Amino acid sequence: MGHGWQGAVLKLMRGRDFTFTVTGAEQVTEDYRRVHLTDGGLLAAAGVHPTMWVRLWFRDAGKPHQRAYTLVDPDPEAGTFSLEFALHDGVASRWARTCAPGDTVEATLQGTGFETPDPLPGRLLVVGDAASLPAVNSLLDALPGVPATVWFETQHASDEGLPVRLDPARHELRRVPREDGGEALVTRVKAELPQLADASSYVWIACDTATTRALAGYVRKDLALPKERVHALGYWRAS
Q1: Are 37 and 80 in contact (CB under 8 A)?
Q2: CATH topology of domain 123-232
Q3: Nearest CA to 174 among 103, 138, 125?
Q4: Is the pLDDT reported for residue 75 higher than 80?
Q5: What are the pLDDT digits (tens) for 12-23?
Q6: How many CB atoms are located within 10 Å of the residue 74 CB?
Q7: Cα(21)–Cα(102) distance, rounded to whole angstroms?
Q8: H or E element: which one contains 127?
Q9: Rounded-to-integer distance, Cα 77 and Cα 110, Å
Q10: How far apart are CA 6 and CA 68, in angstroms?
Q11: In angstroms, how far apart are the furthest CA atoms of the chain?
């Protein structure tokens, strides 16, 4: 299918197109689904790095619609990976609920990147939610020896069952129910993060756009952490 003006822009930015094939799916919780795919040559062509993501293309009322998803457990030798979907009423979630083995989905690789903090942080300070969970897990997997504190915003009771990959010896999980459009998370992180953050920390924030912006500004301005020790990216927009 054509990808419209967004696809044209990605082409100009050297985006590379691939076609993935569904091999299966599993319902992790009632609000979270994992889809297994073959990679259409992606991993052999591009390699693998932590928090690696791709843009999937869907049709929404006849128009091209793209959303970004982090690769889960990519296996370059087998040419496979999974994608995880925090389910809601949207075109990508509808596809994830109904796709079956043999179905295909088009994707573009453009814009992804990760550089391991150098020097390694004394502690990871991570703020995420169900939408960024695959990236949170990928980050924790990539830095297994680094202690981490994770503030994880939840929206559903079923979020208690989400597969956060924690090493109990090194990782601490602080769940925060979503309230007031993310304000509860902002308030709690601002109250607790200064007790843990120092010049050796690495702060990684990926929530809804407004929450991410508020916390990134706080960390950079109020706590004065250097920009190379802060990563912040809004993963979705609250409607």
Answers
A1: yes
A2: Rossmann fold (3.40.50)
A3: 125
A4: yes
A5: 446 699 999 999
A6: 19
A7: 6
A8: strand 123-129
A9: 22
A10: 13
A11: 51
